């Protein structure tokens, strides 16, 4: 064999070995389930269970329907209620994927027990408003007006975020008020007015808006002293964490924020 032929054969061998090595590396990287490419290709599927504050009901139902439409084969189920009750259920072992609370203090019930995966993130804020009967027959224009003789006023229980916020607002205004009842979530307080079992209730602005013409809303300046941050978190023992993360991403996306903003929520 000539020196030139030997050199040509050696070059071809090296080229072949390099090509084989590249093919091997490519195959390994594409089949590695731990890579970002592999994890991002997973599509949301199955059922995701969301525990959420009662004040989020209308917005989250809208987002749930949108999520199911965007990801055929998925289902979003909700458990709405007072944030403290939901937190107690989660720490008690109730199966859920996502928790959206109406206050950071309530979320801490879950995080203190290390039942959340990662740090919760604030996704919206909410402020209070007085809900009155349609037409505001009692002529309520301030928190102080809620103390009028004979007026039936309902508050949320102070164990839930809307009750804690109402107490802050009343204290800021120096108003002492004895309600006819304390309710376990904001929807229950609002319902008392809708059914004309009460003349007024201190609830969230978002709930007044959701009620439409069933009630009338009255703003008051002390509400600025009691704005609630709403945090959302993936739960530690989430049965379907992948789909849960996708739903949380929708909530925090520009699309999700538009839905929440239309409901009256404030930006985080």
UniProtKB/TrEMBL annotation:
Record-given protein name: Molybdate ABC transporter substrate-binding protein
Signal peptide: 1-29
Organism: Streptomyces coeruleofuscus
UniProt KW keywords: Metal-binding, Signal
Keyword Metal-binding applies: yes
Keyword Lipid biosynthesis: no
Family membership noted in the UniProt record: Belongs to the bacterial solute-binding protein ModA family.
Gene3D superfamilies: Periplasmic binding protein-like II
Superkingdom of origin: Bacteria
